[in-house]
Specification:
The structure holds 2 protein chains of 2 kinds.
Chain A: H1 2-17, H2 19-48, E1 59-66, E2 73-74, H3 78-87, E3 92-104, E4 111-118, H4 122-126, E5 132-133, E6 148-151, H5 153-158, E7 170-173, E8 176-183, E9 196-199, E10 215-220, H6 226-243, E11 251-257, H7 258-262, H8 265-299, H9 301-309, H10 314-352, H11 368-392, H12 397-400, H13 406-446, E12 457-463, H14 472-487, E13 492-498, E14 507-513, E15 523-530, H15 534-538, E16 542-545, E17 559-563, H16 564-570, E18 580-583, E19 592-599, E20 614-618, E21 626-633, H17 641-651, E22 657-662, H18 663-670, H19 672-706, H20 708-716, H21 721-755, H22 766-793, H23 796-801
Parallel strand pairs in A: 4-9, 6-8, 15-20, 17-19
Antiparallel strand pairs in A: 1-2, 1-10, 1-11, 3-4, 3-10, 5-8, 6-9, 7-8, 12-21, 12-22, 13-21, 14-15, 14-18, 16-19, 17-20, 18-19
Helix pairs in contact in A: 1-10, 2-8, 2-10, 2-11, 2-19, 8-11, 8-13, 8-19, 8-21, 10-11, 13-19, 13-21, 13-22, 14-17, 19-22, 21-22
Chain B: E1 2-13, E2 16-28, E3 33-37, H1 44-51, E4 59-64, E5 67-68, H2 74-84, E6 85-88, H3 100-110, H4 115-128, H5 144-156, E7 162-166, H6 174-189, E8 193-197, H7 201-205, E9 209-214, E10 217-222
Helix pairs in contact in B: 3-4, 3-5, 5-6
The chains are: A alpha+beta, B alpha/beta.
Chain lengths: 803, 223
């Protein structure tokens, strides 16, 4: 132990004596470690850290597995939710929620909040008590019970100034009176960033064909196990399928840990690929540092030989060299910690500023566990970088002590060193391809044609309260008044409302040609209801027929406008104009619509959702109380946002607008995750490229230094500069070529794995690979030419005197 | 003290072997001072490497202070070397990052000598070699002669029975070389066995015997 401490101290002094070398190695290792630490902070926050509820392993998500939803569990209807609560009560407590918008308009300000309608037992199932008042009792969810609400800590503090007497107060919620019964603890929000909770009124008489809107959360009883739950669900499923075979034809029941419902399996997979990426960056850093340490060891070989002659055993020398690399990597870890922390903090802030981020209770920070991980990673890194020099320690002692031994030791070290460079180039190639594939995908997203004109559009979402505006007529009247007022404003070219926001929001529906058997294959389309100004505001291109107009009343024959994709898919080569289609054929009330217009291809839903046909209906015939407003402005759309809020207040003071954003902002939000992913990969790839370039430079510079005398002799013999340069390039070319070949072979499957959960991305674009090849070859050329040119500038006579 | 019998060392080369040492028989008694001379490539350094147990790739028989070296494995050889031998090199080979006293301390550390004893032996030698004032300097801050003085002190601090010196004055000017030779004579006077390789006839003559090598053979031994 004493000896180890002594070697550590000795190694520390050696590092202080060569500050340039030490700083370089620390910088190299710290960049790799910071990447890994950063990724671990994110992964631990999102995936590893358990849900903040008691016994989180007992919490499950149960839902329907639909054959067209690629493994994602979807919600269930009230009918089946109640059946599960009844059938599973011996093995699990079953609760559910629906996310909803809640408008508070008590006092003198109307504000829109993200909220949730939750079954009265949900908070009990999660195991979270209120910090003030109580959570819901079963009686709160009974039909006819007084409307109650639970506030989040943030709403209690910000809207009600943390009034300790808030419990029991009546407030105005969704334009009706509601009583506050509880305030949740500070860190609580569920399922995501909800701030208000209302009790769901579950109607046992509701038909099964209603929407599958309930997300089901179950807590497995401690005494029961998964097999019991599975058996109980299977038994229910068999009965339910026998009773409604058509409904369950495309549905089965799936169970997953609740944590996987919050961070999906696809996201987890993406993080795994990213973790591999950062480990690759760390490996490049290790290879680089090993190279630097090898070079340094080579420079110190005489000193090591002397130590050996003075009685140091090979083990002792190995400990000496390992101490050095361990010390360097521990210092690197100390540098990496704040860097990784700062990067994670940046992501945390970006997440919190976005609507697409994770729930508020997810935290990203360095805790004792991560600190331990970092120290372990640093020790491992130190071992990886120090093991090669340590293994060679103490060899060739007698030859090393002679002055003419330089080239003998150099040869063995140089071989290892060159091998490391091949690895660095290969890994950089993999990471650069991954980054380029991501960036190309993002670029395609941003330049995608949605079938609308995207410039100068202000968008917002509003939801009218059902209690204040019961019935479609009252709701449509508000929307008409609002649009008319907006259109009369200076600076507004046009304005419209619709349930859809192209490229972001749409509902999916099933469609069947009129006359086809209900058993025929149904087509899933994206659909939305729009007013008469929608087409002109978004500047849709009409190809056949007409847009909606005043003649399409609520009581006139149902009509639809479809896009070119619809016409091609369901027209069987003929025009669909005037043809009729049945919407939601499984639903007895599904409308039979006549196509009155065909527009150019229109992308209604997210770009990363599958491409599907689009079908639009008049809002009058298919009314909704939640709509997206669109305003085509003459100038910067965001400059109109304050005036828009004023107009909305004038038209409907109880209804706040939310998501007031320009269309460009909407699109940025829509590709938020991909943007972050691409940016991270770009950073990883840039670090890796820098490391590979620096590694190559280090090896070439060292080799050139070793050969300064030889270069001098060659030049004294009359070799032209170009010839010497070409010779140096040729010696390095094979390393770069081999690294590139290995890198390209590995890059393709890696990039495919990375984008496997992202629609619209491709890893097969040859341009991406050519670009990466170009960048790496250029970086390699620079790394070779700088030291080579420096050696060539040395006077041959000086070079010949060089030892 | 040193008994070499029929020591041979060679390298395999394309078209035959290159001989470095041929049929070397050499006996050095305890407390004897021997100089090894010869032209470049005669095998002087190779012989010193064999004697210093830094090279084990040879044929023949070697007994050091009664221990048959050719029967030892690597570890045993290193243990024997640690116990019996001290080295002085032409280019001093002090550790640049260590102060003078730490350079002296290093061989003792490698032998796991307790701290108190190490401190005492370092202090003794600093006094004896009159380099107390230099003890906190780094090798780079010393002249060549001072560095070699430290190197000799470092070689003897472990109290070896044999001191092997490879051209100890080769890099020094005459006044500094004189100091080193006087020091070797003093150590010899105290009973230390010394084998030095040198090109300097005058310094070689200060030993009790001169062994002249040529092409790996012992050409002659002069008394």
């Amino acid at each position: 132990m004493n000896a180890i401490l002594h070697e550590m101290r000795d190694a520390g002094r050696g590092l202080l004596a060569k500050p340039g070398f030490s700083i370089l190695v620390v910088a190299v290792l710290a960049s790799g470690l910071a990447c890994v630490l950063f990724m671990m902070v994110i992964i631990q926050g999102l995936v590893i850290r358990p849900l903040p509820f008691p016994a989180p392993e007992q919490l499950l998500h149960i839902g329907f597995l639909k054959t067209d939803r690629a493994g994602r569990l979807s919600g269930v209807g009230t009918h089946d939710l109640l059946a599960w609560q009844q059938r599973l009560h011996e093995v699990a407590d079953v609760a559910a929620y629906q996310q909803q918008t809640i408008n508070l308009s008590d006092g003198n300000r109307a504000e829109r909040y993200a909220g949730a309608s939750i079954s009265s037992n949900l908070l009990r199932v999660l195991g979270v008590p209120a910090q003030l008042g109580r959570t819901f009792a079963d009686a709160d969810g009974k039909p006819g019970a007084e409307t109650t609400v639970i506030l989040s800590d943030a709403v209690w503090r910000q809207r009600y100034n943390a009034d300790p007497a808030i419990i029991g107060r009546l407030i105005r919620m969704n334009a009706e009176s509601a009583r506050i019964i509880g305030v949740m603890p500070a860190d609580f929000s569920y399922p995501s960033r909800e701030m208000l909770w209302t009790p769901a009124r579950l109607d046992p008489g509701e038909a099964r064909e209603g929407d599958d809107d309930w997300v089901v959360v179950a807590r497995l009883h401690a005494a029961a196990g998964m097999p019991l739950l599975r058996t109980a669900l299977d038994s229910w499923y068999a009965d339910a399928k026998a009773a409604a075979p058509r409904y369950f034809e495309m549905r089965s029941v799936g169970i997953e840990p609740l944590a996987e419902q919050i961070i999906s399996r696809n996201t987890r997979k993406t993080f795994k690929v990213m973790m591999i990426a950062v480990v690759l960056v760390l490996l490049v850093a290790c290879a680089n540092a090993a190279n630097l340490i090898l070079s340094r060891t080579l420079a110190r070989r005489q000193e090591l030989a002397v130590r050996s002659a003075l009685g140091a055993s090979r083990m002792r020398l190995a400990v000496h060299l390992l101490s050095q690399s361990l010390l360097l990597s521990l210092i690197a870890a100390a540098v990496a910690l704040p860097l990784g922390w700062a990067a994670a903090d940046w992501v945390d802030r970006v997440f919190r500023g976005s609507e697409e981020g994770p729930p508020h209770w997810m935290h990203f920070g360095v805790d004792a566990q991560l600190l331990g991980f970092t120290v372990l990673a640093a020790l491992l890194t130190g071992l990886l970088t120090g093991i090669l020099p340590a293994l060679r320690a103490g060899s060739d002692v007698n030859t090393t002590l002679r002055d003419d031994s330089r080239s003998v030791a150099g040869g063995a070290f140089a071989r290892v060193s060159r091998g490391l460079v091949v690895g660095e180039v290969a890994v950089s190639c993999v990471l650069l391809v991954a980054a380029a594939v991501m960036l190309r995908g993002i670029d395609q997203f941003e330049s995608a044609d949605f079938g609308i004109r995207t410039g100068n559009l202000l968008t917002a979402r509003v939801g009218l309260s059902e209690s204040k505006f019961p019935g479609a007529d009252a709701q449509l009247a508000v929307f008409d008044r609002l649009v008319d007022k907006l259109r009369s404003e200076p600076g507004i070219i046009d304005a419209a409302v619709g349930t859809t926001l192209p490229g972001l929001l749409a509902s999916d529906r099933r469609v069947l040609r009129d006359g086809a058997s209900p058993d025929d294959a149904q087509t899933v389309v994206y659909s939305g209801s729009i007013d008469d100004r929608f087409a002109s505001t978004y500047e849709l291109t009409l190809e056949e027929g007409r847009f909606f107009d005043a003649s399409d009343r609520a009581d006139s024959p149902p009509v639809a406008v479809v896009d070119r994709t619809f016409a091609e898919k369901l027209g069987n080569g003929e025009s669909v104009l005037g043809r009729r289609f049945r919407l939601d054929p499984d639903n007895a009330e599904g409308a039979l619509v006549t196509v009155v217009g065909v527009i150019r291809r229109l992308q209604l839903d997210d770009l990363d959702d599958p491409v599907r046909p689009a079908l639009l209906r008049p809002l009058r015939q298919q009314p909704e109380r939640f709509v997206s407003l669109a305003m085509r402005t003459e100038a910067d759309p965001l400059s109109f946002a304050p005036r828009f809020s004023e107009i909305l207040r004038e038209v409907e003071p109880d209804t706040p607008a939310y998501w007031v954003r320009s269309y460009d902002q909407v699109m940025r939000e829509a590709t938020f995750g991909e943007h972050i992913l691409a940016r991270l990969f770009l950073v990883f790839a840039a670090i890796s490229l820098f490391l590979a370039g620096a590694g190559l430079y280090g090896v070439i510079a060292f080799s050139v230094r070793q050969r300064t005398r030889e270069i001098g002799v060659r030049r004294a013999l009359g070799a032209p500069t170009r010839r010497v340069l070409l010779d140096l390039l040729a010696r390095s070319a094979w390393q770069i070529c081999l690294g590139l070949v290995i890198g390209l072979v590995l890059a393709w499957p890696f990039a495919r794995a990375l984008i496997s959960s992202l629609n619209g991305f491709s890893a097969d674009d040859p341009q991406v690979y050519l670009l990466v090849l170009g960048i790496l070859v250029l970086a390699a050329l620079i790394a070779i030419l700088i030291p080579a040119r420096r050696a060539l500038r040395v006077d041959p006579l000086v070079a010949l005197r060089h030892e | 003290m040193i008994h070499l019998q029929k020591i041979e060392k060679s390298f395999a080369l394309e078209g035959g072997r290159s001989w470095v040492l041929r049929n070397v028989d050499l006996h050095v008694g305890e407390g004897e001072f021997v100089s090894v001379m010869g032209p470049s490539g005669a095998g002087k350094s190779s012989l010193l490497n064999v004697l210093g147990l830094m090279d084990h790739d040879w044929q023949g028989s070697y007994a050091l202070d009664g221990v048959v070296v050719d029967a030892l494995n690597g570890k045993q050889r290193q243990a024997l070397q640690r116990e019996k031998i001290g080295f002085i090199f032409q280019h001093y080979h002090l550790i640049d990052d260590l102060k003078v006293w730490e350079n002296l301390d290093l061989p003792l550390r490698y032998r796991d000598v307790p701290a108190r004893e190490r401190a005492s032996r370092v202090a003794d030698l600093l006094d004896r070699f009159q380099i107390v004032g230099k003890k906190d300097l780094y090798p780079g801050q010393l002249s060549g002669g001072q560095q070699q003085l430290v190197a000799v002190a470092r070689a003897v601090i472990t109290r070896p029975k044999i001191l092997l010196a490879d051209e100890p004055t080769g890099a020094l000017h005459s006044s500094q070389a004189r100091i080193i030779m006087d020091l070797l004579a003093e150590l010899h006077g105290e009973g230390m066995t010394i084998v030095q390789v040198t090109h300097n006839e005058g310094y070689a003559a200060e030993a009790q015997r001169i062994v002249r090598l040529r092409d790996g053979w012992i050409e002659k031994v002069e008394l």
